């Protein structure tokens, strides 16, 4: 771990005073950045500690939305979301990730910004364009069973590991941030992440010194919701494929479909094509296949992750089948498919 | 006087005597012995090679030496004197030199090229990144295909012959069924919770070392050899060990480096390997190719069993595992052939890993047996029962005891074989069975037992407790002999100044050292009884609140007489040595037996496998403590689940490195992977195996555990995965093929 300077942010308004610190990295729960610093994958020399930042520690309900402070822990958010019918999907996604100990530390903003678990990103002896731009991508020609099929480039095929962000994609979350000169901005999470392209080290649209202050979750009916995560063991593993889905069905017609895919994209994957194909359509196996065909048209496989398109197909079928059955039995149901 | 104090007998499921120490944090593990050191230990961190084979051509430690807190940077230039790794040739693998930093040669990826010692771990780790080095690398030799393994290993672990062939090879299978299949198992790691760690300190010529090691006496010898020291000057202590699973049978680089550092700086030095360093600097198991040709007649009687194993062997290290052991002994057949070939490979140390031989041998063999049963359209349990051997199938020798058939029959009954739970919608349920046969050995072992005038009994041996319950069972053996409670027994383990024992490993610890302790207790008891007046000499001893008593049985109730009234107190302490050797065990075939039964549920769409139940019935002679034994067996069954479903080291072949050397991506089974695990024993002593009547259980639980899962998956889905672990992508491929 490279020695670093530590500064503290106590009030949001103090952000202006940080603008002079070049290359500063914010540290919230520390569940990811510290690990990477120990391995010298990340080598920041300036850290800004957010543990005394009191302003953004709560979830507030408003007329049209919920506002989740950046420092709300994954545990707190999961608990809140599990008691809020329209956010059940988010709760399920959060609880499928990490462990209780990690979720107690990890924050909402930190979760959005966690780095990939690509094996080669973690191994400083091997080329990785995300870690060291221009050094090459080891994953493309090596074992890549955990890697992405959507949004990849010849420079990077690493997945974004978050479960929470996948559910937030499905639920159309907004990211609220503050700039170093104190200006507040909001943008859709669906526009927040950058695909690797030629610059895999740039993972999102945050500019230097900008700080996420909150995530805004719109109050909308999401119907019956289910997060299904397929992984190499049944807990404490990242998704090989995950599907976050909320379905409102009327007369077997898809009234509203909220959807996000995890484990398959270089960014938490928002399957706009599949959603468009299914919305308003009859929910049949054939239509689901058609929607998947359309979505997977842009997918690319790399050898040991060749199974992912089929696994994604089967997982989406499983999830939509279950949700549809529930909607047929309990029309207008809003909430979790299963209690969690 | 009368007594009703309860004694703790052998076999009783009492709690661990060291349990409170462990759960209150008072049990000290290797890296925790800091306060017993004369000074706070300095902390070492190793700098690892990023090439597999080659020579260090450039090494610059100047920047690291200048970094804050750094006390020394040790490399091959200043680490000596050290005996070259693997020397002398005529020593065993645990007593040969384990030298590191002895020269410029790099033998494997991740091997230390330097050791940085600083005041804190953080300082050492950072300074490590400032060490500059180049390695003139050569291509690494690895095993990619089965046919590249063409060397006959000089010896196989467990003393098995590399090749055996018996009976007449059937010329045709026209009148029966045959399978000809290749299975593969991946590289695996022991994954003990406690990483390899050591604190070492020199006081003049005297070296004190706290490593985490399963066998103490050979560790002393290995240090003496490596450091070119007199063994008399070395004191090794390892009182608590956070899991070994074979990876701590011998000492590894943490221990050698801590000693090198302590010698160089004349200060205590502590080294705890990071998890990533554990993968490269402790042993792992090589991957295997196992080719099986099995045939049976149309009645389901085995005609032939042929098993061929191909594995890598770490260059310069004499270990090869007996993957075919189970194929030789589990079932009778007209013809049995088992061969082992290895390829010398440039890999980190390959050594005993969680039930060497049988863990992966049984994965493949017991799966292939199921394939044959399926082909012959015979229930896999019935098929196994059809082929029970009366004598050892290869050499015709008798078994001292053989309860495989009973384990299968009784186990099936308790489990409810083929009485399946009903499946949830979208799921299918399957049952699987597998046999377990694990060779039993008694290893030379000794212990001293003493009794003071108050009746307090102390057991001294360099035996270790790697989490298995050794403290408890040795206390029970002593308590049983002296009719007392384990509260009256003090067991001191893991100290090289105590009598040398078997140590823990190869399932031999409990029976070997337990027998030595039993003999020592008997000797103390005989000595005491010999001092008594004649009319007491057929009496029993008992230790009660009143101290040592002589217990005589009268008609209906025991009568205790305080020993103090019969014997002069000056005879105490009474101290006797007990020892066992090969004379204490039979030359006939000794095996522990078991049968595994598993119920799985598989999602027909996502191919996710969930264990519903694991059940095992085992026979391992006398069970010394039903509770610790069950825990140990259950642990083995959980490891078996890991081998079947989740665990694999992925190799990066270009660099001969591991792709996933951490617990984030090397997936050991977690709590949610494991459902109900239940175990029963056929608890019958086998006094031909050991004086205490026990046989090994350490590796029995894992043997066959994974295959039963694989067989249950096949039963549920019709998908047979021959490439372990059975991950979701492989099951999915099988399901998709069946559907199309």
TrEMBL record, chain A:
MF annotations from Gene Ontology: FAD binding; oxidoreductase activity
The keyword Ribosomal protein is assigned to this record: no
PROSITE patterns: FAD_PCMH
Domain FAD-binding PCMH-type: 1-222
Keywords: FAD, Flavoprotein, Oxidoreductase
PANTHER family: XANTHINE DEHYDROGENASE SUBUNIT C-RELATED
Protein name per its UniProtKB record: Xanthine dehydrogenase family protein subunit M
Organism, as annotated: Alteromonas profundi
TrEMBL record, chain B:
Domain (Aldehyde oxidase/xanthine dehydrogenase a/b hammerhead) ranges: 24-139
Gene3D superfamilies: Aldehyde oxidase/xanthine dehydrogenase, a/b hammerhead, Aldehyde oxidase/xanthine dehydrogenase, molybdopterin binding domain
One Pfam family per UniProt: MoCoBD_1
InterPro entries in the cross-refs: Ald_Oxase/Xan_DH_a/b (IPR000674), Ald_Oxase/Xan_DH_a/b_sf (IPR036856), Ald_Oxase/xanthine_DH-like (IPR016208), AldOxase/xan_DH_MoCoBD1 (IPR008274), AldOxase/xan_DH_MoCoBD2 (IPR046867), AldOxase/xan_DH_Mopterin-bd_sf (IPR037165)
GO molecular function: iron ion binding; oxidoreductase activity
Protein name: Molybdopterin-dependent oxidoreductase
């Amino acid at each position: 771990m490279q020695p670093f300077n530590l500064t503290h942010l106590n009030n949001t308004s103090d952000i202006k005073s940080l603008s002079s610190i070049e290359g500063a990295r914010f540290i919230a729960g520390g569940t990811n950045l510290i690990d990477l610093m120990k391995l010298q994958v990340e080598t920041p020399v300036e850290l800004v500690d957010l543990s005394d930042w009191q302003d953004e520690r709560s979830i507030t309900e408003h007329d049209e939305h919920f506002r989740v402070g950046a420092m709300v822990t994954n545990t707190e958010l999961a608990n809140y979301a599990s008691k809020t019918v329209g956010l059940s999907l988010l709760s399920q996604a959060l609880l499928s990730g990490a462990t209780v100990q990690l979720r107690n530390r990890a924050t909402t903003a930190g979760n959005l910004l966690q780095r990939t678990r690509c094996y080669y990103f973690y191994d400083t002896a091997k080329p990785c364009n995300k870690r060291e731009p221009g050094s090459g991508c080891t994953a493309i020609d090596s074992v890549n069973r955990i890697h992405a099929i959507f949004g990849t480039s010849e420079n990077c095929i690493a997945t974004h590991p978050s479960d929470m962000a996948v559910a937030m994609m499905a639920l159309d979350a907004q990211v609220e941030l503050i700039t170093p000169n104190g200006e507040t901005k909001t943008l859709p999470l669906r526009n927040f992440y950058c695909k690797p392209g030629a610059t895999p080290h740039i993972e999102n649209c945050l500019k230097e010194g900008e700080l996420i202050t909150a995530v805004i979750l719109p109050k909308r009916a999401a119907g019956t919701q289910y997060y299904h995560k397929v992984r190499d063991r049944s807990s404490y593993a990242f998704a090989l494929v995950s599907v976050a889905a909320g379905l409102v069905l009327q007369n077997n017609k898809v009234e509203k479909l909220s959807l996000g895919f995890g484990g398959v994209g270089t960014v938490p994957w928002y399957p706009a094509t599949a959603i468009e194909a299914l919305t308003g359509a009859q929910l049949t196996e054939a239509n689901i296949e058609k929607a998947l065909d359309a979505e997977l048209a842009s997918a690319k496989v790399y050898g040991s992750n060749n199974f992912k398109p089929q696994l994604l197909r089967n997982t989406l079928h499983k999830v939509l089948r279950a949700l549809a059955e529930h909607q047929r039995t309990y029309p207008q149901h809003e909430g979790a498919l299963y209690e969690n | 006087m009368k007594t009703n104090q309860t004694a703790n007998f052998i076999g009783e499921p009492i709690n661990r005597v060291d349990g409170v120490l462990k759960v209150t944090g008072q049990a000290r593990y290797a890296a925790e012995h800091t306060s017993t050191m004369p000074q706070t230990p300095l902390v070492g961190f190793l700098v690892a090679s990023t090439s597999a084979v080659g020579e260090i051509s450039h090494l610059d430690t100047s920047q690291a030496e200048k970094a804050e807190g750094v006390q020394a940077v040790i490399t091959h230039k200043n680490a000596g004197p050290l005996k070259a790794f693997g020397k002398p040739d005529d020593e065993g693998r645990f007593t040969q030199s384990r030298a590191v930093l002895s020269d410029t040669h790099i033998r494997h990826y991740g091997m230390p090229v330097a050791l940085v010692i600083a005041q804190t771990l953080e300082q050492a780790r950072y300074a490590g990144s400032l060490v500059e080095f180049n390695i003139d690398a050569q291509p690494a030799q690895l095993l990619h295909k089965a046919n590249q393994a063409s060397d006959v290993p000089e010896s196989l672990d467990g003393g098995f012959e590399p090749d055996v062939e018996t009976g007449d090879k059937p010329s045709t299978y026209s009148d029966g069924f045959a399978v000809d299949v290749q299975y593969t198992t991946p590289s695996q790691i022991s994954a003990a919770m406690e990483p390899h760690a050591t604190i070492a300190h020199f006081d003049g010529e005297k070296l004190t070392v706290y490593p985490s090691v399963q066998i103490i006496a050979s560790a002393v010898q290995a240090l003496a050899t490596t450091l070119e020291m007199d063994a008399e000057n070395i004191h090794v202590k390892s009182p608590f060990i956070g899991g070994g699973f074979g990876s701590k049978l011998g000492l590894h680089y943490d221990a050698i480096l801590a000693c090198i550092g302590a010698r160089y700086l004349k200060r205590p030095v502590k080294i705890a390997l990071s998890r990533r360093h554990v993968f490269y600097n402790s042993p792992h198991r090589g991957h295997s190719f196992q080719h099986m040709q099995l045939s049976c007649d149309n009645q389901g009687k085995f005609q032939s069993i042929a098993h061929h194993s191909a594995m890598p062997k770490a260059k310069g290290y004499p270990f090869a595992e007996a993957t075919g052991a189970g194929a030789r002994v589990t079932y009778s057949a007209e013809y049995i052939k088992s061969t082992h070939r290895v390829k010398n490979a440039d890999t980190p140390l390959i050594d005993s890993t969680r039930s060497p031989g049988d863990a992966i041998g049984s994965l493949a063999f017991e799966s292939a047996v199921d394939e044959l049963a399926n082909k012959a359209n015979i229930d896999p349990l019935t098929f196994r029962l059809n082929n029970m051997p009366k004598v050892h199938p290869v050499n015709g020798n008798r078994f001292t005891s053989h309860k495989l058939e009973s384990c299968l029959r009784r186990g099936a009954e308790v489990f409810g074989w083929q009485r399946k739970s009903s499946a949830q919608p979208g799921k299918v349920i399957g049952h699987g069975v597998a046999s377990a046969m694990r060779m039993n050995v008694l290893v030379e072992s000794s212990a001293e037992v003493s009794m003071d005038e108050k009746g307090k009994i102390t057991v001294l041996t360099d035996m270790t407790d790697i989490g298995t319950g050794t403290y408890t069972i040795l206390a029970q053996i002593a308590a049983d002999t002296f009719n007392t409670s384990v509260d009256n027994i003090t067991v001191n383990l893991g100290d090289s100044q105590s009598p040398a024992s078997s140590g823990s490993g190869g399932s031999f610890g409990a029976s070997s050292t337990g027998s030595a302790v039993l003999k020592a207790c008997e000797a103390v008891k005989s000595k005491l009884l010999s001092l008594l007046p004649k009319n007491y000499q057929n009496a029993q001893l008992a230790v009660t609140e009143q101290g040592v008593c002589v217990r005589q049985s009268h008609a209906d109730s025991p009568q205790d007489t305080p020993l103090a009234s019969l014997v002069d107190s000056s005879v105490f302490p009474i101290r006797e040595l007990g020892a066992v050797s090969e004379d204490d065990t039979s030359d006939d075939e000794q095996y522990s037996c078991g049968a595994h039964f598993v119920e799985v549920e598989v999602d027909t769409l996502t191919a996710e496998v969930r264990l519903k139940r694991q059940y095992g019935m085992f026979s391992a002679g006398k069970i010394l403590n039903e509770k610790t034994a069950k825990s140990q067996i259950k642990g083995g069954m959980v490891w078996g689940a890991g081998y079947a479903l989740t665990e694999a080291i992925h190799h990066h072949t270009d660099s001969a490195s591991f792709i996933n050397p951490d617990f984030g991506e090397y997936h050991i089974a977690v709590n949610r992977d494991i459902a109900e695990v239940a175990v029963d024993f056929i608890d019958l002593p086998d006094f031909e195996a050991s004086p205490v009547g026990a046989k090994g259980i350490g590796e029995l639980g894992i043997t066959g555990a994974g295959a039963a899962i694989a067989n249950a998956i096949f039963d549920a889905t019709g998908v047979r995965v021959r490439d372990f672990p059975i991950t979701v992508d492989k099951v999915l491929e099988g399901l998709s093929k069946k559907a199309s």
